[in-house]
Amino acid sequence: MLYVEYRVLGHTGLKVSSFVLGTGTFGFWGNNTEKDCAPILDEALAGGINLIDTADVYSSGQAEEILGELLKGRRQNVILATKGGMPMGGGQNQSGNSKYWIKRAVEDSLRRLQTDYIDLYQLHQPDLNTDIEETLGVLTDLVSEGKIRYIGTSNFQAWQVTEAQWASERKNVARFVSEQSPYSILNRSIEFDLLAATAKYGMGVLVWSPLSGGLLTGKYRFGEAVSTDSRAATFAGSLQSIVDPNREENRSKFEAIAKLQTLAAEAGLTLPHLAMAFTQAHSSITSAIVGARTIGQLRETLKGNDIRLSNDILDAIDVIVPPGVTLDAMEKGWTPGWLQADKQRILR
């Protein structure tokens, strides 16, 4: 029952599935127990997915713990990726990309995942307070110790990708082989310059939120009530706002979705299959991360893996949402600290 194809992650020679299982729904963020999560992992592996992505911050470590239990006896069959750097407690140094915290974060992830090594360790977001050379130094040490195989980034800007690559060359230390960013038909911001940077340096690209937080499933309607178990009802903060059908700023997204639904129907596709196939069409994208809450959602998504969009359909999508454009700044994944008012103005 293989669904997926395999692509090489950047210049590593490592073959990874075109779809990645994301585990943001493992734990109290979604499915609380191992019993609830096990069928989703089993279905992913049966479908040929060989790359599993998680993070220490998902459900405050519970996602890693559940994954560690479920992978017992088959750890060697998967490429295991996790992320670190987000706050994992109230302490002043329990976050960021410093040598102090990254070393501890990696050790904590290894313990929760019940493994001796992490195949791909990714910085969850940039840390403006830490020099990239310090971060690369500790990551290189961890690679030398055999605790990490490859290193990657997430939510980096194009110039930060470039800076890191130059630092690796200058200091002769480990270099980032991948970047993980949000990408969907409604959020094409990484096309503007990030994908050019990753291509320049031979990096693989893993994209998250390919269905725009669920908007591209077509289950939401602008101004209409949402189901009680939907993300718009159960999540809080920015995640809820991104899919909130009653948020006025989302009006342009729902207008685009209506046009995309028509386009999908004319092509004989479902809207989710159109959206997932779109992420597979860009030459710089390696894999799309699928974060399913149910086995049915995962199974339906994987059914569309072999869909390839024609140039006519891709051109039509470009008219609805032009290349490099995002319809909602909240979907960019990470808001740079330099956009804060006190960083832009001369204090008087």
From TrEMBL:
Q: Which Pfam families match?
A: Aldo_ket_red
Q: Which InterPro entries does the UniProt record give?
A: AKR (IPR020471), AKR_Detox_Biosynth (IPR050523), NAD(P)_OxRdtase_dom_sf (IPR036812), NADP_OxRdtase_dom (IPR023210)
Do the record's keywords include Oxidoreductase? Answer: yes
NADP-dependent oxidoreductase domain: which residues?
20-320
Q: What is this protein called?
A: Aldo/keto reductase
Molecular function via GO:
oxidoreductase activity
GO CC list: cytosol
Per the record, the domain of life is: Bacteria
**UniProt keywords, alphabetically:** Oxidoreductase
